[in-house]
Amino acid sequence: MVRFNMILLLIAVVCALGTVTSQHRARKLFQAVEGEHERVRKLDIEYGQLQLELSTWATHPRIEQIARGTLHMVTPDAVGRVVDKPATKPATKGGR
Amino acid sequence: MVVRRRTRRGHRFTESPVLQLALQGWRSRMVGLLLMGAFAALVGRSFYLQVINNDFLQEKGESRYLRDIEVSASRGKIVDRNGDMLAVSTPMKSIWAIPADARTMSAGQKRQLAALLDMSVRDLEGRIAPEKTFVFIKRQVPPETADRIAALKLPGVHQEKEYRRYYPTGDMTAHVVGFTGVDDKGLEGVERAFQPSLIGRHGSRTVIRDRRGNIVEDIGALKPPQDGQDIRLALDSKIQYLAYSQLKAAVEVNRAKAGGIIVIDVRSGEVLALVNLPTYNPNNRESLSGPQLRNRALTDTFEPGSTLKPFTAALALERGKFRPDTVINCAPGRITIGRATISDAHPHGALTVAQVIQKSSNVGVTKMALTLPAQDMWQMFDAVGFGQLPHLGFPGEVTGRLRSWKNWRPIEQATMSYGHGISVSLIQLARAYSVFARDGDLIPLSLLKTDEPAVAGVPVFSPETARGMRAMLEMAAGPEGTAPLARVPGYRVGGKTGTAHKLVDGAYANKYVSAFVGFAPVSDPRLIVAVMIDEPSAGKHYGGSVAGPVFSQVMGASLRTLGILPDAPTQVAGADGAKGRL
Prior knowledge:
The complex is a heterodimer.
Chain A: H1 2-57, H2 60-70
Chain B: H1 2-8, H2 17-20, H3 25-52, H4 54-62, E1 66-71, E2 78-79, E3 85-97, H5 99-102, H6 107-116, H7 121-127, E4 135-141, H8 143-152, E5 157-166, H9 174-177, H10 189-193, H11 195-198, E6 203-209, E7 215-223, E8 231-232, H12 237-253, E9 258-265, E10 271-277, H13 290-293, H14 296-299, E11 301-302, H15 309-318, E12 327-329, E13 334-337, E14 340-343, E15 350-352, H16 353-359, H17 362-369, H18 374-383, H19 410-417, E16 424-425, H20 426-432, H21 434-437, E17 441-442, E18 458-459, H22 463-476, E19 494-504, E20 507-520, E21 527-534, H23 543-546, H24 548-561
Parallel strand pairs in B: 2-8
Antiparallel strand pairs in B: 1-6, 2-3, 3-4, 3-5, 6-7, 9-10, 9-21, 11-16, 12-15, 13-14, 17-18, 19-20, 20-21
Helix pairs in contact in B: 6-7, 12-24, 15-17, 15-22, 16-22, 17-19
């Protein structure tokens, strides 16, 4: 009877220790997840800032300035334009 | 008696009189009762604490390790139809202080903080001087700077997260997009009109924190955060830029007070561009004043002048009183109604209805208008949207002024036929022209991108009338018309000039509003462009020569941008062997 009780006690202790370790592990993992979430947030913010930077670099006034100033591009006048497909009849009459 | 009997049994000792005062039974019972009472009190107290007053203690316990933390949500972006950013929020920090604590900073710490915040030590000391419990030292500080301040571990200096709104396109789209205040509240434009959907709702969640402040367990979300919705405008930032740069150049060349331009997609009613000048930079609003802020195209009205003539003519055609080739005698360039005389800028002889529109004859239009009942004219103006809100949902949009037909005098009906005595906003004018660009129906406009290709319009004129007017308006923008400068090489365009005297203090002054409204390509109209230049003062003031060139540039470039096929090409590939050299 005493031996049986001792075995039960041992099992109880092992279970208790198991609970403690798994709880600890769960908290560790949770912290890792939290860290990753934080990283997601940070990257999200950085992405937003990069998007902002992109749109600031790609504003139309700047593009036009570079195209005309640095690359010396010009809009062709009507005489220099050739239309690929003859537009003898209205291209799209549908959709109304 | 009893006692004496006991003594006789020989217990002499007990006969002592001291022992006569035997321990009374109630005393021991009393002690027992007191002990029991105390025990009962303890049980009662513990029952009270454990069962009845449980919540309070539970709360106290949880407050030692449970925390509700706020999960922030950001404001929605505003993008153009192609997804280009027009307004974005990015996180910033605000630096605040508890003045009493912050005053304990050493001189060196103050210097460091002031340097990081780009302010003088004196300013900083001024900030933390008042006897308050909370002051902002600086708001909207970049996160990197805030991190460096946090690393200094200054006493009484704290930080809080907030958002700052950026507008990459700046002054180009300022009037449409608007701006927000420091607390993410939309103050102008789309930012204000769509505030409820743009705004993000902060959420919160409950967590367990350990001694070092790390989150160790998530108990659950109280409220999930909700990011604001992104708003996709109908605006095309490329066309918006073209319109902006052309209008800006025209306003400068003509030394005008203000200007406005609107580009509308004829099929969907989407507003592809809307520019007002003068404008402002929404990223730096320090020197902002009222006139710059106004979205004139929606909030200001003007007398549209000759741009209204096509409506009068269309109504006359619709009623069957005139045909495009009906001849009207406009000589000698004057007509007298009551005590007033209406005259043409250049006297004309006999003109057909088409020529009246082409040459923009006031006399010709007046003669047409006087054959029409006042009520009919009012109904037509009302049907094309004058005197009514454009219903864009934009703050401050106006109805314009269209008086009831019941008290029109003949002279008023005559002046209204050519756009005086009635006031409209530029957006109303642009929208009204959709009845000619389409087959006689008026469509609602949209600031937001719509996915449906076509919307059902409200018919105002018959398709035949609309087609007839298109032909006349093409003549007006032709070599013999009032606006040859409005032509676009490669495309057939139609449109009408307007040059109206401005009303200043109730009298017509020598100031003008020059306008041009038109559409292209005439064979199958896709775009409407309306240009208005306020008080050009560099010599020219006719709509054809001031607003016409802007129309031509913006229309031409927009049609090319949208890849709309020219309907009057100068060269066709295959005809002369040249191919694909665009």
